[in-house]
Amino acid sequence: MVQPLAFSLNRAQPEALVDQIVREVERALQRQTLHAGMRMPSIRALAKAHGISTFTVVEAYDRLVARGTLIARRGAGFFVAGAAEGRDTRTAHPGGTLAMGPAAAEVTNAWLLSEIFADDSIAVKSGCGWLPDSWLDEDGLHGALRSLSKGPGAHLAHYGHPHGYGPLRQWLTRRLGELSIDAPPEQIVLTQGATQALDLIVRTLLKPGDTVLVEAPAYCNLLAVLRLAGLNVIGIARTEAGLDLAALEQAAQMHRPRALFVNPALQNPLGTSLTPASAHRILQCAEQHDFWIVEDDIYRELAPAGTPSLAAMDGLSRVIYVSSFSKTISPSVRVGYLACSREMAHEIARSKMVAGLTSSEINERIVHAILTEGRHRKHIERLSDRLTRSRARLISQLQSHGVTLLAQPEGGMFVCGSLPDTAQPARELAEAALLESIMLAPGEFFLAHTEPCHWFRFNVAYSDDARLFRFLEKAAAGKWAA
Questions:
Q1: Which residue from 34, 58, 354, 420 has the least number of CB within 10 angstroms?
Q2: Distance CA 108, CA 169 (A)
Q3: Element (H or E) spanning 259, and its range?
Q4: Predicted TM-score (pTM) of this structure
Q5: Residue ranges of E strands in 2-134
Q6: Distance between CA atoms of residues 296 and 274, nearest Å
Q7: How far apart are the C-alpha atoms of 190 and 207, rounded to whole Å?
Q8: What are the tens digits of pLDDT across the range 155-177?
Q9: What is the DSSP letter of 34?
Q10: d(C-alpha 289, C-alpha 250), whole Å
């Protein structure tokens, strides 16, 4: 039976609505008006009952799941956790790596949002984070699958190496060498996408309560991974040239962080890249204050030549390099990788085996076949040209409909733009847009500490639609509810 949750919210008090919901749910548990196993109201039902945005409920449920108060069951909803389900599911193994239980590993803010947005009936997916199938290397996938199926003695049924498929790691050694990153195969670990690489780094290097620095704004899935790991997350403003270096220095002195997570090339969501001077200063700060740098570099193939790499400048001494093939070949193959020192690679491979055993060698063989077939570079050139044309067209359309750019992107998939301060907050507008079958990504999703804002991240491949621009024009004029 669904629990009605009888409580009231006070918009006049300074406490955020999310905090009020979390407090009231936990009080109901203490008063035993909520019991283990009870099903909670759906996100939409609770939002409607209290006249609030579904995004507010998503964030509250996300926090309650992370605390162990609720559990999420795919396709069934949210339930009050039992004693065993509610306790911290992370356990240490002898190497010092944190292994995270299945509930914590599955439930992220991005997953909760997918329950609302991952709907084929949505007409305009301007806020999504992927490219259309037709933009990716589908021909390469088909060819690789045919080649793999016909290969003699392929031995496809075994688990594979803990570090991943050897020939692909050897190819990556050569590719990273082109970027001036010296990473022999034993210093490379293949993963199920870049997100798993980030998660394994968190499990290996960090413990609950550690402080980490992220960009503001930052990749939203990264923020979810860090929150679920119980880390103290501090945002450092991302400027046109890179990080706000004065703020970085101040945060390093005040908080003594264990790690900094940064996108050097075509940062998600802004689309800007670090300058060489900014990259050099970041490395100096890390050395002075003794913290790791995790370089999330998944857009490198789409970036202009000469865009600086922290790993190339550091030599993988203090930098852990992360990338993947999701944005250029296909997200369906789930093949990413990380490169780091030999000792760290060994520890991360142990974490990978504890968390989920080996990654898929079949998928890694598919990617290797595509990369060595000889047409991948041409595919990247075509994709980059297509993104350039679509980005220019989108920027022109956004500006003509009352949207101001947060930054001038240097390439890639995304453009960030803001409506006037007189418009409704971005989360409320995203709610209204969804009713018109338009998916938007409000800026709050990319901030470590959510606060009302007026900007969105737009995907250049999904935003060339008159319905989107009509909605934005109406929103900019303050007439979105008309």
A1: 420
A2: 30
A3: strand 259-262
A4: 0.76
A5: 70-73, 77-80, 91-92, 98-99
A6: 12
A7: 23
A8: 666 777 889 999 999 999 999 99
A9: S
A10: 11
